[in-house]
Amino acid sequence: MDRPWSAPSPMRPGFAQAETAVPLLNIANILTMLRIAIVPLFVVALFVGDGHETGWRITAAALFGLAAITDRFDGQLARKYGLVTDFGKLADPIADKALIGSAVIGLSVLGDLAWWITIIICGREIGVTLLRLAVVRRGVIPAGRGGKLKTLVQSLAIAVLLLPLSGWFADAGMALMYLAVALTVVTGLDYVGQAARVWFAGGPGRSRGA
């Protein structure tokens, strides 16, 4: 006997997919794109004149701070309101690395930050990216608190070093940067260990829980 026609049920798969489809242009992705757009403006402000003009250094620090704030909120909004998209997963880490990388490289070019610090920070990010690509088919390495703390301390240190400060203010900025370097190394080694465990314990189609 044929079933009588009925309206689509909220529990039916097709209906659920339509209801849960996440638009690409949402607040989380807009903040990520804003952060990417700020990066070239930040670089221009940093290198105006000889790179040490007070007004422009304050402008560069303000742009960096604005971009760093968007990094704080876009991920939280995406998770809280179910706005996670493939674009966001790809663009968010790119935006983070572009912001931090351009800042430390710029400071080193201007002679305000030792190149060995920049090499460690950028090398860690490149290495982690390559590891992530290497193990992505075998498992997922969840973001840890150490990585988030590392990014926070890096951002604070860079913000202080960008400002035209001297004396103990500048010393405090360098102390933060040394702490950031230590966290960069420690979290990088931890990521290598996690990647090795995923590689040897996982397999195609398997993943680790967050």
What does the radius of gyration come to? 21 Å
Q: Mean of residue pLDDT? A: 81
Strand content: under 5%
What's the story with the biggest beta sheet? none
N- to C-terminal distance: 48 Å
Number of helices: 7
Q: What general form does the structure show?
A: globular
Helix share of residues?
A: over 70%
Quaternary state of the chains: single chain
Low-confidence stretches: 1-19, 203-210
Query: What is the β-strand count?
Result: 0
Helix-strand string = HHHHHHH
Structural class comes to mainly alpha
Descriptors for this entry?
mainly alpha; 210 residues; 7 helices; globular; 73% helix
Précis, in short:
The protein has about 210 residues and is mostly helical. It is built from 7 helices and no strands.
Structure description:
- By secondary structure, the chain is mainly α.
- It is built from seven helices and no strands.
- It has helices spanning 13-20, 27-47, 54-80, 86-109, 115-135, 145-162, 168-201.
- Helix 2 packs antiparallel against helix 3 (54-80) and helix 5 (115-135) runs parallel beside helix 7 (168-201).
- The longest helix has 34 residues, at 168-201.
Strand and helix layout:
Layout: H1 13-20, H2 27-47, H3 54-80, H4 86-109, H5 115-135, H6 145-162, H7 168-201
